[in-house]
Amino acid sequence: MVRMTRLLGGLAAVLALIAWMLPAPGAAAAESNGGVRVMPLGDSITDGFNVPGGYRIDLWQKLVAGGYTVDFVGSMSNGPASLGDHDHEGHSGWRIDQIDANIVTWLRTYTPRTILLHIGTNDMYQNPNGASSRLATLIDRITATAPDAELFVATIVPLAGADATVRAFNSAIPGIVQTRAAAGRHVHLVDMYSALTTADLADGVHPNAGGYAKMATVWYNALRSVPGSLDGGTSSPSPSPTVSPTPSPSPTPSPSPTPSGDGGCAATYRTVNSWPGGFQSEVTVRNTGSSALNGWTVRMTLAAGQTITNLWGGVNTGASGAVSVRNAPYNGTVAAGGTTTFGFVASGDGAAVPAGVACSSP
Known about the structure:
Immunoglobulin-like; eight-stranded mixed sheet; Rossmann fold; about 30% helix
């Protein structure tokens, strides 16, 4: 019995040692290739909620394809194998003040040359009052701790159900950045908000894969616009801190809608996200026929109190009651068995499903 007790005690000690040696979940593996140290900094959007790795996946691939050698740094780590360096400083659920409380330690530990800051989304829900002032304080702390680092400050991406709050917060950021850039600090504005719409959100808050890819493009263009941010050299503050996203090419209009062979289509409605006083929905149009659709129209009757405030992927007639939505110029043609979608944000009770959702062609 004594011998068994000693064996169990020894096993426990070994297991404890193994547990101590293993990295904590989410802890960075400190991957390094000796490249320019870039710190992706923010909340769950930097972490990549719902798409592990988020914008960092496509950004890494763009950097490699562009011939840049970078080393993502931070205390966190996640993402797929296609992301060559998994380190980052994205903390799900965190507000600006929580990042601010830890930033000095992170900067001293990882000494980034370049910092990509996207923060404030959780403040919009939890405590929007004074968010811009807290951001200014965070920026000042970063530039004081790492005065030679290139700091890219992004406006936050759209947020379903809180667009006015997001816009108010984002509107203060250019002035905050401009003041510090004029004072000689290496701070640059990145216009992330206008690069995405709520259609690029998976759940009304976090981008989907396409939305993260758009973010990667904006970050990449911003980095390339500032000498030294990717080659480790020293650059002067940009005289104009605004970096606009590269406009997407205009979609090629499809032919004018005409009857499509057998004209078969069906429409499926679903609520993507809801909040007090509003919701986001998506409608999928499916070609149920044997030949291509050349134009479609979805008709439905919204419940009392529901009013569409923003719609994408189609052109609507009416915003409440009986509503019809026809295809946009770029998604009118749907192959046999294929699908396309449109979405909208509306005020009212998201639990009430529209009546008579139906599709016809054209």
